[in-house]
């Protein structure tokens, strides 16, 4: 099987080591063999990015627009093929994988437009005979480190704005899911991106990621991943004064009030907790349910959850795919055991043998829980959710906010009063009313508060706050 190479300075470089990439639905299915970059490869990639940066930043906005727009169109035209690749390497069902691919294509097209919308300000001075211009310039060389759970969408929403605003990129995708990022690299080259503007270095974070963090010519780091790794990234960036943007964990609540439409509430919670196998940072893993509707909610959730068809990602009948790998599955099962130890009633959550050899787990619902339990404070990142009974809205909002995280929060209610109060008082960057906590648009800002996020928002026009530097120029007209 031919080795999929790293992209450095416009050339495909295989290196000395490679790693097989397996399908978590069927571990006998080898998706490909991918080169493993070395620290020296990172040095070469950064040098290539540095050589290309000035010319790329100076390129006219229309030319940058055209390259990004072609990239978006190509991704959209190949959505079935790329979606199948994504489903094979990450394990989410095909419909979700195609949806994620469409999102990636639309992200590139949106930021193609941003190339033409990079405006500034002309400001009147308080002194006569002086003009003031406020403009934006590229931050320089951006190191991008992406996670395995959205292997095409998250690289897209980091790469596209970086390029749109005139930066060059060194990108390290997750070791578990390199195939989609490699496909983006191929498409960018096909669509006319000059060599060195985008560089792909695949491999382990301890080698490749560290080399990106340590390189003095990398001026900014955009990272999405675990809290512990994010904190390490922040410390390293502070030491070298790199600009940093972090998206990390979540322990997202969904409040269900007595007046909620039960069908809407159950559907929203089912989607939030178990779609994409619960492997979303925006997934809801705490259902905070008012006592009057609690028992019926649990009954309905149990029925709907138990009816989910779990199977191979490419099977059209599957509603939930496998966990991404053995290590994640073992971690999930430890939390299922912990729930029992902490006194929760556990419904589901077992490992089981699917029609193919993969990492299959039944969705788990933990009832009879309180918010102090570890299962309600630590991110599990799998198909596991807890139910917490509360008396009223005030207790619900207090429990919702009682977490170190603050990414997404939802409420199911038919009351405008409570919906408005929740939007104002929820300590989260994203608030959903009668909607799943996961599921966001590509043209508006994304990010959280507290331990979930650090630095400027991602996506939409707000992305310029991270990928550009503001310059204020004073000009004497006298």
Q: Which of globular, elongated, flat, extended, rod-shaped describes the shape?
A: globular
Averaged pLDDT: 97
Strand content: 15-25%
Count of strand segments: 23
CATH architecture of the largest domain: 3-Layer(aba) Sandwich
Q: How many domains is the backbone divided into?
A: 2
Radius of gyration: 23 Å
Number of helical stretches of at least 4 residues: 14
The CATH class name of the largest domain reads: Alpha Beta
Structural class: alpha/beta
CATH superfamily annotation of the largest domain: Aldehyde Dehydrogenase, Chain A, domain 1
Spatial strand arrangement across the major sheet: 15-16-17-14-13-19-20
Low-confidence stretches: none
Distance between the termini: 69 Å
Explain what you see.
By secondary structure, the protein is of the alpha/beta class. It has two domains: 3-248 and 452-476, Aldehyde Dehydrogenase, Chain A, domain 1; 252-433, Aldehyde Dehydrogenase, Chain A, domain 2, CATH 3.40.309. Helix content is 39%, strand content 24%. It contains 14 helices and 23 strands. Strands 15-16-17-14-13-19-20 form a seven-stranded mixed sheet, sandwiched between helices. Helix 9 links the parallel strand 13 (252-256) and strand 14 (284-290). Helix 2 (61-77) runs antiparallel to helix 4 (94-115). The longest helix is centred in the first third of the chain and has 22 residues, at 94-115.
